[in-house]
Amino acid sequence: MLSIPLLLDSTEAQVLQVRDTLREHLSACGDFELSEEAPKHVYVEGLSESAVTIIFYAWTTTPEYDNFLRVNESLSLKILETVRAAGTELAYPTQSINLRGSAIP
Predict the structure, then answer these.
(1) Alpha carbons 104 and 40: distance in angstroms, whole number
(2) pLDDT tens digits along 45-68
């Protein structure tokens, strides 16, 4: 399973565009098992402190490691392309600290 973190300030339309494009990719690229019993999940999973997370869970068509690496590379590049095309960005953990009324020497 792959978690794809999008910036919290991504619009609903941007998040849905990323989700829908990745769903289409899963179905059309030929890299993933599409049988009835195979998992095929691309969903907005939820919100965290720093991201809106989309999950991508599917089986590759064959279990060979070389195939897995090829599919993983292809999917990673598709995610980057999709996120940029939607006009948003991948998120990373951030933290803001506000200091009030104190002087730092």
Answers:
(1) 53
(2) 999 888 999 999 999 998 899 999
